[in-house]
TrEMBL record:
Official protein name in the record: Ectoine/hydroxyectoine ABC transporter permease subunit EhuC
Primary localization: membrane
Record has Zinc as a keyword: no
SUPFAM superfamilies: MetI-like (SSF161098)
Family statement: Belongs to the binding-protein-dependent transport system permease family.
Organism: Streptomyces caeni
PANTHER family: L-CYSTINE TRANSPORT SYSTEM PERMEASE PROTEIN TCYL, MEMBRANE COMPONENT OF AMINO ACID ABC TRANSPORTER
Keyword terms, alphabetized: Amino-acid transport, Cell membrane, Membrane, Transmembrane, Transmembrane helix, Transport
Cited Pfam families: BPD_transp_1 (PF00528)
Subcellular location: Cell membrane
Membrane topology: Multi-pass membrane protein
Amino acid sequence: MTSGLWELVLTGIWTTVQLLVLSALLATAVSFAVGMARTHRLWIVRFLAGFYTEVFRGTSALIMIFWVFFVLPLAFGWQLVPMWAGTLALGLTYGAYGAEIVRGALNAVDPAQREGGIALSFTPWQRMRKILLPQAVPEMIPPFSNLLVELLKGTALVSVMGMGDLAFSGNLVRLALQESARIYTYVLLIYFVIAFLLTRLMRGLEHRLKAGAGRAASGPAALSLRRTGTTTVGGGLS
């Protein structure tokens, strides 16, 4: 390939990375907000969070991109640039899947931990921040790693808007050179390398968080919480 075509591919890689980072940040924020809302004590909050989750899990990410980019301007007069339209559509869609990861991890925490926090007169937010999330977040990392790779592959959908991501740039190079096998092999390898780096990064984050959770579990506050949960909660059950 000529230098101009390589520059086109590199520009596409950079656009894909930008879209991945922005949509991943949005999806993470949505995941934690909706996931924690699904464990809320008020039924209306749980209902609204569940409604959002079911709607966005049950719709196609491709159709959502079409809707945000083509329908939203006609319906409300808001025209988003392709980068922000792709970020919004992908972030909201994959955030719905991430919300179920957060909800499952929070519900998997030992109920005695919640009861111990209640015995220590922690507010719901304090129990969430100091007890539940430190134990649940390390368990979220492996499924979040898979979801991040799925999000990376989902970024190729934005090419339908004419956005110059890796998939769109690869197709332009293919049309210029008329070499489908070689060009798409390169594109596959680039996606694989990015996904491999993401999984390595997430695995390192998982080890670090689990090590931090182990150190926190041996601190004075954790010992007090376990002592309270054992004597007060456990004693009440017995």
